[in-house]
Hints:
Blueprint: H1 7-10, E1 38-42, H2 62-73, E2 77-81, H3 85-93, E3 99-102, E4 114-115, E5 120-129, E6 146-150, H4 159-163, E7 168-172, H5 175-184, E8 190-194, H6 195-204, E9 211-227, H7 232-248, H8 250-256
Parallel strand pairs: 1-2, 6-7, 6-8
Antiparallel strand pairs: 3-9, 4-9, 5-8, 5-9
Amino acid sequence: xxxxxxxxxxxxxxxxxxxxxxxxxxxxxxxxxxxxxxxxxxxxxxxxxxxxxxxxxxxxxxxxxxxxxxxxxxxxxxxxxxxxxxxxxxxxxxxxxxxxxxxxxxxxxxxxxxxxxxxxxxxxxxxxxxxxxxxxxxxxxxxxxxxxxxxxxxxxxxxxxxxxxxxxxxxxxxxxxxxxxxxxxxxxxxxxxxxxxxxxxxxxxxxxxxxxxxxxxxxxxxxxxxxxxxxxxxxxxxxxxxxxxxxxxxxxxxxxxxx
Length: 259
């Protein structure tokens, strides 16, 4: 890892420029070695609320808000790109993008890239009706129960118990549906979802008084900014600012907007 860029050397008086990218053909072409004073950040076409929200006039979400706060402090303009997940890694390596939100564990061959420190942790937890006596500490706590899950998702910790039917799984196609089934279906005992995703949905649906979450999680991954190797000094400087906003309360203020 290259030495950390000083904060003073990275600061400029340039205003933040936010450009919403159009079609792929309109993307500026840069070589993988070239580094400009614009940071091109991918938010994907569909987003990932509350981490990335793209269905409003301006981008929003935890990861976007943190990047929008830090990047100008490092002396860069911020440019938005909306690239589908299956094309991101290649376009990042080829220099069409500079950064994208990602967990190391969700990346094929993560050694090809550099990652910032975790901005926030993605945790899968159990949601229960407020008046339920159930809780989760160990899988055995849910033996004989039915868990509402997301269609197509794998939960490695729970798979053995789903497979031997000690815990029943009921799949639904959308995260929002999980809470509707749990609230209105008598045969469902709990829902398994990302903690912040669940809290966001519950807040948006006005259901905060109806659910609680387990303290224990079945997985936890750091959600970071993934970059090309030549942006390693940027990653170091980003980490310094990330630690600063964690200590001064700015990060907590961002998180509070989505809980």
